## 1
Amino acid sequence: EVQLVESGGGLVQPGRSLKLSCAASGFTFSSFAMAWVRQAPKKGLEWVATITSGGSNTYYPDSVKGRFTISRDNAKSTLYLQMDSLRSEDTATYYCAKARRGTTPFDYWGQGVMVTVSS
Amino acid sequence: DIVLTQSPATLSVTPGESVSLSCRASQGISTSIHWYQQKSNESPRLLIKYASQSISGIPSRFSGSGSGTDFTLSINRVESEDFSVYYCQQSYSLPYTFGAGTKLELK
């Protein structure tokens, strides 16, 4: 059974940093691209970052480019999201998601972790 | 960026009705559209990939169609467990974008 378990969320002040983790199990982690997708309170879904299976390629929307960094440790089957220079508009539930083939669609999702950016 | 416009925003139906949810892309995207269901306080679930391809484990009452700019998610005979929010997502070009969602609610 595929499982994705996020951790590392919490309350952080604007301008500070936070690092999310996603522990994966139930599939060959190193064979699949992974992504982070977020959802602001009462809002829709927003793609945040994608990393290819080997970690050599990463992709971001302009809203987080230069501030967020996605990475992975295939030996530990763990995905990460380093978030720097956080803003209030980054407040959201962050989901870790597995790509089905290539880099999309996302066929498995974690339960999500809440990040609140506030002073 | 490709904008996906979903309509209607809310659809009120009674169980047993069949419904169609629309997703329109701001430019042609071939069949690079995927549909997700998100129940209240749950994570999204992939329903349909590449406009019309089924996903293992998803009930057969869910189907998708369309190409280019206009796409439809159809639910044949809505069941009580189907009341949730449905999102479309495009993978034609980066950045990947989602529609704002259609909420399917009980009339």
Note: Chain A touches chain B at residues 37, 44-47, 50, 59-62, 95, 100, 102-107, 109-112 (CB under 8 Å).
## 2
Amino acid sequence: GAGVSQSPSNKVTEKGKDVELRCDPISGHTALYWYRQSLGQGLEFLIYFQGNSAPDKSGLPSDRFSAERTGGSVSTLTIQRTQQEDSAVYLCASSFPPGRGELFFGEGSRLTVL
Amino acid sequence: QQQVKQSPQSLIVQKGGISIINCAYENTAFDYFPWYQQFPGKGPALLIAIRPDVSEKKEGRFTISFNKSAKQFSLHIMDSQPGDSATYFCAARRNAGNMLTFGGGTRLMVKP
């Protein structure tokens, strides 16, 4: 399909393990975002990539969280030494360059840390 | 601090009624105010958006009212339908970039 693709859709892990979440944005979109949605809560900004610029990491909650974007396309969000409070749905979105407005979201990766 | 406050957290409306969701913001640098709709198991999708140079925007049954002096904006859903049952998020974008700050969400249930 032509939408934002995320994998895995569901991930159950044990506390202390590392996890990687993948996002494949819409072709041609230069901006990519990661948000976190905890149960019944709003969308918490994590990180923002725009083209070749340095990413805006201001929303990452701790140094256990990191993300990279290879070749200006696919992005991976890595959570090291997972904790139970990391359990949430991790949403990826992409958009055209700044100023165009609309973010297109994927269906998210639901992470459960036991 | 960039913040968008949304109310109510949940809303129950009878079919055919009007659903009203309110948001307030603090940062006057925000220049674009979208509303996103999210169905269970899906990602949010853009519903309607407004810029601060207009006071109202209407698309079908959905209307955004914007009060720049009060730093408030609201979503009105006319003739609400059971298919409108979803979580609604207001958001605001700072004019320096494209990153959206979201409100806490409103879970709307429209009863048949």
Note: The first strand of chain A starts at residue 5 and ends at 7.
